[in-house]
Amino acid sequence: MVVTKKFILEKSFNGAPRDDNFKLIEEQLDELKNGEILVEAIWLSVDPYIRPYSNHVSPGTTVMGTQIAKIIKSNNKDYKEGQKVFCSTGWRTHSIINPSTLGKDKMPSFYVLPDFGNLSCSLGLGVLGMPGNTALFGFLNICNPKPGETVVISAAAGAVGSHVGQIAKSLGCYVIGFAGSDHKVEWLKEVLKFDAAFNYKTKDVTAALLEAAPHGVDCYFDNVGGEFSSSVIYRMKNFGRVSVCGSISSYNANPKDLPKVPMLQPAIVFKQLKIEGFIVSRWSDVWQNGIERNLNLIKEGKLIYPEHITQGFENLPQAFMGMLNGENIGKVLVKV
Ligand SMILES: NC(=O)C1=CN([C@@H]2O[C@H](COP(=O)(O)OP(=O)(O)OC[C@H]3O[C@@H](n4cnc5c(N)ncnc54)[C@H](OP(=O)(O)O)[C@@H]3O)[C@@H](O)[C@H]2O)C=CC1
Ligand SMILES: CCCCCCC/C=C/C=O
Q1: In this structure, is residue 62 part of a structural domain?
Q2: Axis-axis angle for helices 226-233, 205-212 (nearest 10)
Q3: Name one GO molecular function term (predicted).
Q4: Backbone phi, psi, residue 307, to 5°
Q5: Domains in the chain: how many in total?
Q6: Could you tell me if 152 and 264 lie in one domain?
Q7: Mind listing the pLDDT tens digit for each residue in 246-298?
């Protein structure tokens, strides 16, 4: 009989997540039925969406999330023990899955990991997974960047932002990043070779953009929202494009009482801006192609993909709270 550890949402979030929102429990799993597989988590992904999406789940539910797991028992002829899979089974160490009953229309929730060669399978949660596809498709398809254009990225030292910045650099764009510490700013400039980077906690955003992009911004990849983004949008050039990927500055706010920011319509109208939000699942039909394209960028030496790793399943809540507080450079992961 297999026992899984899992985290449940003990209490709904109210503001920033705290220890007492989470409870670690054990659960005995049933015997495998025909068509089912048993998987054991190796890596768990720690993602910002867990915070806003959890507003819609009831206390007692397993905390949502994705993982890379190993098949340790199979009652399904199409899946073999030892294969590594990506699955969306939440914060748990062991899960029973029936691959044939999973929905296929929205976000990919289960697949056997493609061959990454010598690279770590953990990349399937980051640069070769959902955040990687978010960066690739969300930037290229919505911002439509051209060589020589000026690109601004918020949360630029994180998993998605750092990836977008490197794609923009490889296209010959002038890249400006904003992040929340001097250490991150140095990393963006020295390691990723951004043309300019600023600490948004200590530097006024409008002043920074007047300095680094006096003629304005062509493309803005927005991970943050709020007042920060209003400031960037008022520095866009005519016909600028904004890809609204995330709004992390509001994720801890009560959805019924969101912060007020300067209205955007004057900038949108008079600069004729195109502003488009997206959820990466819109590219689920080309998901594996996105992974291949990012794998090729890695093989060509065009992508650096740091991982911010916390050891131990029990430390998932700390890793999650740390990510929301900006402790990471690159992708946040927990190694079981
Ligand atoms: N639309 C989609 O389909 C998807 C959207 N996303 C979004 O992309 C964004 C980045 O995700 P991901 O790369 O996984 O996470 P990151 O690796 O970027 O980690 C989150 C970062 O957000 C920054 N942050 C936290 N609070 C604030 C704040 N109040 N203001 C500004 N920055 C803040 C912190 O960096 P710092 O030190 O710089 O503050 C932190 O490191 C998120 O908004 C996420 O929701 C991600 C995947 C898919
Ligand atoms: C169960 C996987 C859900 C992934 C959602 C990804 C979209 C993220 C949006 C904002 O962060």
Answers
A1: yes
A2: 30
A3: 2-alkenal reductase [NAD(P)H] activity
A4: -120, 135
A5: 2
A6: yes
A7: 999 999 999 999 999 999 999 999 999 999 999 999 999 999 999 999 999 99
Helices (H), 79-181: 130-143, 159-170
Q: Are residues 221 and 258 in the same domain?
A: yes
Residues 112 and 174 in one domain: no
Tens of pLDDT, residues 212-223:
999 999 999 999
- At 280-293, the pLDDT tens digits run 999 999 999 999 99
As given in the structure block, the two tokens for residue 167 are 């794609």
Q: What is the DSSP letter of 204?
A: -
The reported pTM is 0.98
In a domain, 297, yes or no: no
CA distance 99 to 85: 11
Pocket test for ligand 1, best of 137, 153, 160, 194 (most atoms within 8 A of CB): 160
Looking at 191-336, list the stretches that DSSP marks H as alpha helix, in order from N- to C-terminal side: 205-212, 226-233, 265-270, 287-299, 316-324
Residue 248 Cα to ligand 2 midpoint, Å, equals 12
The answer to whether the CB of 311 falls within 8 A of the CB of 333 is no
CA–centroid distance, 77 to ligand 2, in Å, is 31
**b/e sequence 245-282, b meaning 16+ C-beta within 10 Å:** bbbbbbbeeeeeeeeebeeeeebbeebebebeeeebee
Q: Do 179 and 226 sit in the same domain of this protein?
A: yes
